User: Fold these one by one.
Assistant:
Number 1:
Amino acid sequence: MPPPSPRRLSLQQIVEGQRRAAFVGRQAELGLYRTNFALPPEDPRHRFVFHVRGNAGVGKTSLVREWREAAGEFGALTASVDESADSVPDVLADFAAQFAEQGHPLKALDRLLATYRRARHDAAGRLAADSETPGGAPSPGALAAAQAGLIAAGAIPVVGALAGGIDPAVVARGAGGLRAVFGGRARQQEEALLLAEPVRVLTPVFVAELDRVADTVPWIALFLDTYERTAPQLDRWLADLLTPGRYGDLPANLVLTLAGQRRLDPVHWGDRSRLVADVPLGPFTEAESRQLLHGRGVVTESVVREVLRLSGGLPVLVSTLAANPGAAGEANATAVERFLAGESDPARRAAALACALPRRFDEDLVAVAVAAPRNGPHAVPDLYDWLHELPFVAERHSGHSRYHAVVRAPMLRLQRTGSPRRWKAAHDRLADAFVARRDAAAEGIDPERLWAEQPWRRAALDVLYHRLCARPRTALPEALRAGIELCGQAPSRARHWARTLAEAGEDADNAVLRDWGRDLLAAITDHGPRPTAALGLLLTRAELTDTDRAAALVVRAWDRFRAGELDAALSDHGRAIAVDPRSERAHQGRAVILRSLGRHEEALADLDRAEEIAPAWAWAVRERGETYRRMGRLAEALTVLDRAHALDPSDAVPLGSRGLVRHALGRHEEALDDFDRAIALWPEYAWALVRRSRVRTVLGDPVGALADLDRAEELSPGQAGTEGERGEVYRATDRPGEAVACYDRALALDPDYAWAYGSRALALEALGRVPEALADLDRALELDPDYAWARAQRRRLAAEG
């Protein structure tokens, strides 16, 4: 029987083998990394973190690839990410997927990540539909807690929705803070916590899974490339990973590698420097450059010297010029011409230049950039395939390709200076192409949530980039206007926007754009998750229209309101109105704050003005109805809420508010109908479920009432109001002992819940515990001296005693 034939290599394996064979230089760095695996973790010379740093094009990514291969030779389980994973959940998901491919799945982490993705999607949808939930005004502390939760979630739109007219008090009031916002479809309290604080919940599971897997492999090696882009999101987390007791004990056979352009931030890494091997990379030495050129067959001395001169030893340029060394001796040859000197086809050369214009490209964008036919000798598909044969073109995980920055920059300079007219025309074409993509991505999405959707946001930022490159001065106002809205969303979105300005400034060689991008990036990165510093820049330096300035002040006011800075928030809304008296959103925002302070008449005056400016704006009408309800003007509230519902029949909130009004008027059947319709429109409307339970109790349906409360608890676990209403059901059905237990749980969740003290007093009275009942009523009045019902019950009990 003939021996079995050896296993055939795949194309990718052959290509990777050729790439590794062509790798030259960096022997000292390779030796340093390999030696580390020969040292036991207990050896003081062993390093747990390697940091490769150096300028773009210096070969960091190539070295990291070699290190990963070297780690594999020592039996290491390896995983690598780059800037495409720019959040902790994304990094963990990529690591888990790569571990699974190597036969070591992180099953517990995978399950938790799946739960997180589903809950985040549900919460994002809920925030899109959410608006102010009727109820008592939130405290500044609850608002601050809600803000913290929103920031922790990161990917969930916050002020984008708020700036669109949604009262941010929904974040705090409806369910006592962040869980009211993140309730969504969460089935357990743990799921709500996962959504609010994903890093804190996911990381211990990741560490535990690493520890489990570490027992089965000699080493684990993790790599984070292009770290200069992801450090703002990951630096603190990685440093905390190495802090004893923070997330659990990391396995000692773990080696972490970071590759970026800058030194590690001493704020996060200063105390951990003894763990880190700092590996700075410079250009190739002349010997290393000659070795690479010789390996590529470039041996003519005049050509070698020209490559050395043009490349400066930068590995990406040496490699590119080695593939296309061109004719030596042309004193005026540019780096771009050298990159393409080996290609004589003018159509291909033009395509290579044109495709440097977009920051990333696919086949469709090649057609736009090149204006080439779909068929024929220079058809777009053929050009697209040819571009990927060029050594400076890389394809990312997203499916979009891009040029290496060191090669792209001189190509852009050549086109910008060679023909400003063609430069503008090409960027205009690309901008129009991205407008079409942006508009297509907007289909079926609430206009208030567009910036929260990645496909739309990415296309919109590319539109801004190409408009800025074509006409920096005239496009800047539009770009700054976009930033006003993005400053009110997750910090990562504002960073992408600021980076777009900086890149456009660099590529268009425009100092104004460069300065804006640099300063905005610093403001967004250095001042934490709040947008106050970036908005301050826009307000003090930008040549904004009155409308834009008012919009920026409104966004900053919402941020300050959520942080409990009510005076500052009122001031910003007031300034917005002074700048643009016709800003309905500024009047609306100030009305919400005034109402939360109990200044109802002033709030109504602002709503009068908002409705005068935008008569058909359903939100303003709805807010008027809710304000009347809180003032006890129930008949007026009913009339206004009828109008709000007529203006927007798809909005569940006016129906919920009207249901509560009808219940207060004793029209319980109509109230039940309103709540039924509201919940049919919005099945996750926990506030309405709790209030419907109250109506069902009055109508003699305790089973239905308890079912509503169970569902509300499922949606927004751990809420004092839900437990308090459950106590009401038990008290109404003559089960005072169970009622007291519910009120106890409500007060444990919210010790300042005056209503629960008053209701528990009646349950205690029914059990014959009158002194305790009197003490509860005293406490209720201490918390709320205007609580007339509690005062009347206190007098009654005292008289009967």
Note: Residues 128-186, 327-334 have pLDDT under 50 and may be disordered.
Number 2:
Amino acid sequence: MQKYMTNYKTDPKYVLPSPEWFYRQFGIQWNGQYATLGSNTAHVVKIQRVDPDETLVIRISDPSRISQDRISQIHRFQTYLKTQGVFTALPYETPQGETFSTTESGFTIEIYPFIHGKSPQRGDFEDVRLVARAIARLHHAGVDYLDLPGEESLFQNHVALEQLREDVRRAKELSKGKVFYNLYMEYTKEAERWIAAIQALRTGLIETSLHLDTGPQNMITDADGQLWFIDCNHMLRGRRVFEVCVSIYYMDCSSEASLKAPHRYQGPDPQLETVFLDEYKEFCEPPWTSEENQALNIERMLMLIHGATYWTSRWDENTVREELIRFGDYRQALRANI
């Protein structure tokens, strides 16, 4: 563990308050030692509480990136999930009953219990079944829960169809003259067709509350075999077939394959997909629909289009071109199965 910090090195605006601040605000004592767990949309560290001895997770976020109203909304949903038998770590409260506090610098602090256990293993069929059951129960619990924003409130993946449409349009303009331009145009020339296909099926696609980041790193299996959802700050309402699509991908070994690794470009293992879907369908409510069956490969195509669009602004031109070439067979197979 590192010593108490006053500046987050990769982004100085993040400030971890002093141990005295934590005691004043939450009544929590710690010795100033911490370990960094992550830093994407928030800075997340692990500390050891003193008396009682307990491991805690501290999440420091910028209100300009995620508002405190949004955080309260998520906390309310997490509390609701607990009443429905869905396991997710609940935030600690201040003596005034608030589930977060604000530092002198204006940043939001949330405190969660650290869930001891292990993340599900990609490619392990028993873990695939466990994850599928847990996601089905999460989706069942959220069907009638309406106090969450809709799909278009998020811009990080293809769940927001209008945002995807705009991202593709912008990427086409910015990619002109680059070595991958023709390939990218080929990948995206039918984007409107696939978006329209999802919209045409919409009445048969069940809408519910989604976690939106169901990678193994955001799930923990405890000593009793219960699966806990963590990092819940993206939750919203949307079509559950989207989350089934991406969860199958996350549980497949291809999702963590490095560039140029052959299995990166093959798509999810068909047997793993069958195991996931069979387990999900057994526990999901309302029942899985024929429209969702039709939508699953369309979601995969939109996921690939979103990925290709993301690459155009993140990698050098030759890397983008090579990736588009390597995914070509997978894209053609997807298209043939829609």
Note: The CA atoms of residues 119 and 220 lie 5 Å apart.
Number 3:
Amino acid sequence: MPLKKNIKKVLLIGSGPIQIGQAAEFDFSGSQACRSLREEGIEVVLVNSNPATIQTDPEMADIIYVEPLKASVIAKIIEKEKPDGILSGMGGQTGLNLTAELAEMGALKDVEILGTPLDAIYKGEDREQFKNLMTEIGEPIPRSMILESMSQIDEALEKVGLPAIIRPAYTLGGAGGGVAHNVEELRRIIELGLQRSRIHQVLVEESVIGWKEIEFEVMRDSADTCIIICGMENVDPMGIHTGESVVVAPILTLRDDEFQKLRTAAIKIIRALGVQGGCNIQMAYKDGDYRIIEVNPRVSRSSALASKATGYPIARVSAKIAVGLRLDEIRNTVTGCTPASFEPAIDYVVVKVPRWPFDKFKNADRTLTTAMKSTGEVMSIGRTLEEAFMKARRSLDTDVTVHTSKKEIAMLLQNPTDERFGCLFDAFRQGFSVDAVKDMTYIDGFFLQKIANIVEIEKSLQNNPTDDDIKRAKHFGFSNEEISEFTGRSTDDIEKLVGMPVYKIVDTCAAEFPASTPYFYSTSDEECEIVRDGKEKVLIIGSGPIRIGQGIEFDYCTVHAVMALREQGIEVHIVNNNPETVSTDFDTSDRLFFEPMKLEDIMNILRKDDYSGIMVQFGGQNSVNLALPIEREIAKYGLKTKILGTSPDSMDIAEDRDRFSQILEKLNIRSPANGSAYSEAEAFEIARKIGYPLLVRPSYVLGGRAMELVHDDIELQNYIKEAVRVSRQHPVLLDSFLQNAIELDVDAVCDGEDILIGGIMEHIEEAGVHSGDSACVIPTQSLSDEVVATVRDYTRKIAL
């Protein structure tokens, strides 16, 4: 079918600011959809309120409105722009909800709803309509009841019983929902759910906690052709939101007949909904029985994972289907030679592990439930499940508490928190059996055995390991540094024994066809699929999982760096492990590595090809922290690679609070009285000299982590141990806190000679509120011309 001839201009609704349950995956899908539509000659009008995304860049759409995502505002934009169609499925729950509101207020009377029809939005999101549809097509759902007021609770108790799962309609990431084990919890969660729901409706549902959770990413076109993009299996059982669960692809614990039963049901559901494009379907499965849990008639975080896991560009294909193309008419741009109607095939294992913000919010409730709390996720790829598990753990880049008390381990396994994945390893280290852990967690024994295998390898490495033990550990994903820690042997000796890793291609077709835009993962094998070609190459280190203080603004910077280098004819490669981002899209860079961003993994990539340079300044704090170690390793191996941009020594001056203070003193730039401390005793001595209140700040940390205002000796004593631990080998700086002070942010670019100041932002809040948490204005409002001139002068001096 050709393109819909009446569709010349399309309005695309973005997802707005990052929030729990709605992160960079919609920046990725929306950006991919914009490019896809423009490839077909369609004018794209984008509405989004998030300035940190690549999606709101001028090059991404023809017309961009950075406006509040409110139905009344978008209705005025529709009236002005007069689009022929609206694409709602790329903006997450926000996009769907706004499309429904716009239709209900009559703003879409001359605008065609593309991709996800209005009827599908209602049937997928309205719990009662969804229940009726599943009953109509003969698909099993949990016993349930719809509630629209608190007065129906007694009836729900009688009909559904306890425990029960509460799911509010039209909410994001399970917000307002949860699991009720008693009447008091039921009342509390229902009351919250009714408040959160756009239509004041909740579903009280029979609990299937402990069943397996299975997801299918399905695609359908206007000719009713349906394909399964990816089947995914949650390691954690039902009762934990899929965004909070460790997820594996492909599905590993179902027999083929069980898989085919669920696959058939998924296709039946997308046909019944009438969705044209991508759709996410979640199911519970146990002992041959299954229930349909939820349908997202839009792209989701799982869609981003499925897209990166298989290499299949879900958002790109969905956008083209929305404007009339069939799957067999759309080319798979990864292979360059197969149509999009080919179901992807993978010959590796993918693991996703969530990243939680509890390192910043230590007093928050860490319990994992049906409502999301994670801010991001990492994805790893390996030839074995053990290898993928190990690479995912390295990618998380977070402190892990090791538990040795059997009582404590049992409690964490039975009451899941963000520590549960790591605690599974602790359980087997302390002698728990697979069956015992299975009884406490309901996690399938297959996954537990794989984790037990990893722990067995750890034990073999600690007990006079043979060369074969070390090679086996490498095959199962242990890094040389991890093997060194267990064995006491040097990493150089280990590399001589096991060799360097090789790199394999992710190509959507299990190497059945050649790939024109491939990306790579490392493994321990003999044949490497990277071919050296002598071209000038630059490697950019990405920012990893989204976390508090490090969001998609760094992905934005990475993508712009790629675009700038490509304009100069330079081949650009990226290493990142975040499946939600634009930088890990299949065609953003010339080559993509889905890898942990540890020093060893970065150096393996640099040594495998000829890189003229590496850039670390676009990946946020984590990549900046690698600058000096990478410089040392480059010298060690005699590589020609240069760290481009700001030198590692200059980065160290900016990050090391002690060195930075010395530079300010040399430049005669005033700064608060300060001092550096490596211990508690030194900290108290400095505090006595300077006086309270003090701002205590460690070096090389992200988003103000471990940065606090202390007012007396007791607060300092409670704090300093944490600060010293966070800063590791770097000093902690204690500053005299400036009260009633105005805080400014200055952004500038320097080429070593000239300086361009991009903007001076004035904070609304006084100094003491982190710049990431403060409202700000451009240009400054309360500063005199003399003060602004001084700020410019200081900026030039510091930059040069």
Note: Residues 256-273 form the longest helix (18 residues).
Number 4:
Amino acid sequence: MKPLIKYFKKFIWLFVIAILFLGIETISDLMQPLLLSKLVDEAISTMDMNLVRYYGLLMLLATAIGLIGALMRNWISTYVSYLFAKELRETLFEKLLSLSITQVEEIDRGSLVTRLTSDINFVQQFVNGTMRILMKAPLLAIGSFFMVLKLDSRFLKVYLVMVPIIFCITFIQIRLGFPLYSKIQKSVDQINQKTMEFLGGITAVRAFDRFDYEQETFIELSDDLRDVNTKTLRIMAIFSPIIMLIINMSIVYVIYLGKDWVFSGEIGAGQIIAFTNYMTQFFFAMSMISRVFNIFVRAKSSAERINEIFDMKADVQLGEILEKNIALKSSLRFEKVSFQYGNGRPTLSNLNFNITEGESIGILGATGAGKTTLIQLMNRILLPTKGEIYIGDTPIKDIQKKSLSDLMGYVPQKTVLFTGSILENLEWGKRGLSIDNYKNALNEASALDFVEAMPHKLNTKLGKNGVNVSGGQKQRLSIARALVHEPKILLLDHSTSAVDVITERYIKDQLKKRKNMTLLLIAQKASSVRDLDRIMILENGQITAFDTHQQLLSSSEIYKDLYEAEMGKEKPYASTI
């Protein structure tokens, strides 16, 4: 839990104040049995009503002081723990945003959700429990020891036998509990992951009628969680009764011997009563330690999982160069660029090419050729394993993220729209523009007509991921969003695959009117890119051809076969392009 110490340090003074109030509360609790023994032995035994009132008032005063201490301690601990969790959750989310796509995808989404929610909640409970219970338990246990010693030294032998046994039992509980609670967290992760997987693929589940299979899998995971929870609770439930049995045996032993001490006048009955109360307080302290331990074990497991995210070093480092400090152009240059995911085979190998400012480029290639990876290298979602990428004369890795985002527009292969109005989705591109600016972007993306036909026009609410618009409409809205801030470089990853030929041609014609904008368009069909300035052919992560449409017809057999198959001049080519 070391990386979390800085958060504890931030609230150290509130923590100290809470401990002070907790100390006041504990002292008040420890004074009650002592005052009770005085009341019995000095007041009730002599029927001195003045002493009865005196000690009674002292007990009420101690109770009132303890109540104030408890209320203040509870208020501060609750405030600090919730503020601690808030800042930790925000920092963890910020860390996730700084990681590259490949790093995020290495972690199960269900696990990410668990870490942002229940894991942080467990850490929060531990912080709260530390200030409310954990610090009180040792104070109460040590205090009860010295108070018993103050009553009569003969009680010390009982403590010296009982305390080591109880501590050994608590140590065994800690050793057994940690791995069990870790298993519970892993089982929760699996259920979260399965639930998210099911909800994300519910259409496919329905189409293939796999509800029975999904239910059986979920029930199996649920049974695993039940079994590990049951096993853990059964094991943990053993320790508290054992500790209680040892303490009760100690009380019985003292009462058995104490009757002779009382009859002989060596000690008073009030001291026996006080000893019994202190033993009960000691048991209460050990029970609190046991409860906090259960929270600690879960919090430790959760903290380790949270720290796994904090310990990840972001692949994509933010550059320091601002756009205003350099002459950023819309030209792109790749020099000996290679990329691979993890330890797998290279996705792209030794790419070298130049794209001039204002040029329109089409990218074709078979599934898995590396087209999307190439686009993601251009906007620094990924960083190359080898080589260097330049925008103008500036290495892309040195450009500040905000400047790079202002420079580029990007429409990913998987269209993403957010819950909210169409206008709110367009504002992801740039906020604060006039309605005419947003309409112009919609017009260029051939989306204005269907948006204007909607009852609420730009204020029409979209469902999750644009569930209430068609695939082609989602793509056009995404293109409009990318055009809103007038990028110098526009990256389209299969962004017109769901629109008809006429609409696709209209969109490309509109984009060509932006004379200084560099366009890169990934497509599956040669007809989608033949009217662009140049066309790049990717095969197995390498560029096999990069030229104009006319030149490729004579120099690239793959491109020629694909184009002629689309035009119906011969049998369809068997390529997967």
Note: Residues 323-567 form a domain with the Rossmann fold fold (CATH 3.40.50.300).
